[in-house]
Amino acid sequence: MRTEFPGFRLGKVLATSFTATLTERQGDPVERIRMPCRLVDWLAVSGLAVDSCTAAELDLARELRESIHAAATAGALQEALPEGAVRIINDRSVQGRAAAVLTAEGERRWRLGSPSRVEDALSVIAADAIGILAGERDGKLALCASPTCRAAFFDTSQSRSRKWCDMNTCGNRQKKARFNANQRRNAD
Predict the structure, then answer these.
(1) 164 near 158, Cβ under 8 Å?
(2) Cα–Cα distances in angstroms (integers) from residue 15 to residues 3, 173, 188, in the given order
């Protein structure tokens, strides 16, 4: 199940969805959280609503995002996790005061210590990244096969053989390019 929000790709996995707020990392990067209000929007759609965000908090969020991406990329390539990235993920995890709560429907939700603390929301994202990187979740880290994207994503498909971070964007682009190349080849 995917949540749609213009400009964002939100999947089931909070940490890797957060890294997708910077897309086309190997091409012309597209920043999806250019200003603090966009981070507030992304957090709200992700179930981590905060009242506001400062420029300094946006910088902390971007630093966490890039640390998660670096660690997830290393994990997907089965390389050692970068020390600096691990330190930042751990720091963000312990700086928040969020708590998991159970809803009447039996779902897990996060209650932030205060709706004005972006740090609480970032701690939830960092904790999710820790669970993935530590191998506590069923799935595997992978990198998007698109040469311009190379986003890290968490593959929970049954075969663990997904190639694209998102079939509607990168996968579709690659299928279209392959189709156009075949059309040109057949025309010649």
Answers:
(1) no
(2) 15, 24, 46
